[in-house]
Amino acid sequence: MNDFSGTVNFNLFLDMKNLTFLGLAKNKLSVLITESSSIASTANETVPKFEFLLLGSCNLTSFPDFLRHQDRLKFLGLRHNQIHGKVPNWFWNTSIETFLITDNFFTGFGVDVLPSRSLRILDFSKNSFTGALPIPPPSTTYFDGSKNELSGEISPSFFNLSSLELLDLSYNNLSGVLPECSINSNHDLSTAGDSKPYFSFGSQLQLLDLSYNQFRGYLPRSLLANCIELRVFKLENNHFNDVFPSWLGTLPKLRLLVLRSNHLHGEITSKSTSDHDFPSLQIMDLSHNNLSGLLPSHYFQKWNAMKYFDASELPNLGSMNYLTKLSGWTFKFLHRYTVSITNKGRELDYEKIEDVFRVIDLSSNKFQGDIPKCVGNLQGLQVLNLSNNILNGTIPSSLSNITQLESLDLSHNMLSGKIPQQLVQLTFLVSFDVSFNRLIGPIPQGSQFSTFDGSSYAGNTGLWGFPLPRPNTPSAPPLGSGSDEEGHDSRSWFESNWMVIVPGFVGGLIFGVAIEHVLAIDRRDWFIRALTVGIAIKNKARKGRILRRTT
Question: Could you list the residue ranges that cross the membrane (predicted)?
Answer without folding.
Answer: 498-519
